[in-house]
Write a structure and sequence with these properties.
Number of helices: 10
Strand order of the largest sheet: 1-2-6-5-7-8-9-15
Helix content: 25-40%
Shape: globular
Strand content: 15-25%
Largest sheet: 8 strands, mixed
Length: about 350
């Protein structure tokens, strides 16, 4: 489905794609459609936000409802996010989804004003309200698989982790990755770096920061690097490809992303987070008249997280694939509990 991008006049509302107002075929849903508000980095990050957009597109098409997706602005405040969500609510969009934990204050405030609208927030479970779905994930589980893959693939027993922002959410990615790698080789050397202390400093939206960090880790000897850094991860993948080492992507299957096509031979795999599936499932529940609410957590068992194996070069490494598959099953079976910090 092709969606035109138009500018919004209201201050703090960024850019938006819009669809027509429709009623779903089952008659249980009547509204303007889906409201989706992007996190830092916006649409086109080939990662977190784009994963949300795939679910938005799928839901628009399958449920034959409209939709509006809105971009963030640089250096915006919580008040800007409140205004964005309120504008979607006043326009009749339902559900309205904030992509990322930074929307927590805005979702909490606006959902209280519009109790008949279902709100969703990704990567935050702090809001307890009957009309809010907290869509969260066991990121540490998919990161564990990334760690196993990295440790089985490295030729130097030296790998790297790059986090976008030094916050508890990204610590989960790091913890799982380290535990997974050390399950293969307890003595493996692991470089660790965070790009910024706060999201406002650009840790999730600065490919140049990612590229510089990756070059530093490569200079130190790492030959597989895993980045959990949103748009900044594109710079990590670029640096890895230029040095002909492996990168591991995050959130989306980055091997399949058009913007990264020239680097894809060096994308070993990606630690997946099914953000698109979470968006789709919430929209589905609303159109069926049974909106999800409370904590909705995706894990390996439910398919909410996983490891993408699209690269034929990865598939050809049978010992790596076998190790990752075994680790996945061990986590699902409860034989392995993955740390979150």
């Amino acid at each position: 489905m092709t969606v035109a991008v138009v500018a919004l006049a209201a201050a703090g509302c960024g850019k938006s794609s819009s669809g027509s107002s429709t009623t779903s075929e089952n008659g249980k849903y009547s509204g303007k459609g889906i409201g989706l508000a992007y996190d830092i980095g916006g649409k086109g990050d080939q990662s977190f936000n784009d994963a949300a957009y795939t679910g938005f597109q799928k839901a628009e098409t399958e449920f034959k409802i409209g939709g509006r997706d809105v971009e963030p602005n640089d250096n915006e405040t919580d008040a800007d996010k409140v205004q964005r969500l309120e504008q979607l609510a006043k326009s009749g969009y339902n559900p309205i989804i904030g992509v990322g934990f930074v929307y927590a204050p805005a979702v909490k405030e606006v959902s209280a004003k519009y109790p008949k609208i279902t709100f969703g927030i990704i990567d935050d479970n702090s809001i307890t309200s009957k009309n809010v779905a907290d869509m969260v994930f066991h990121e540490e589980q998919s990161s564990y698989l990334a760690g196993v893959a990295a440790a089985k693939t490295t030729k130097k027993n030296h790998i790297g982790f790059i986090g976008g922002v030094d916050i508890p959410l990204i610590h989960k990615f790091e913890a799982g990755f380290i535990q997974g790698a050390q399950s293969v080789n307890p003595k493996i050397k692991i470089e660790k770096q965070y790009l910024t202390q706060t999201p406002q400093e650009g840790g999730f939206s600065s490919p140049d920061k990612g590229e510089n960090a990756a070059n530093g880790q490569i200079d130190s000897g790492a030959d597989v690097i895993y980045a959990a850094a949103g748009l900044s991860g594109q710079g990590v993948i670029k640096a890895a490809a230029e040095h002909k080492i492996w990168a591991i992507g995050v959130d989306s299957d980055q091997y399949k992303q058009d913007a990264l096509a020239k680097y894809k031979d060096y994308i070993l795999g990606s630690a997946l987070k099914n953000v698109g599936g979470a968006v789709y499932d919430l929209v589905k529940s609303v159109t069926e008249g049974k909106p999800l609410s409370g904590e909705v957590r995706g894990d390996l068992k439910s398919g909410g997280v996983g490891f993408a194996d699209s690269n034929p070069k990865y598939q050809a490494m049978k010992d790596v694939v076998t190790a990752v598959d075994k680790a996945k099953q061990d986590i699902i079976d409860g034989k392995v509990t993955v740390k979150t910090q």
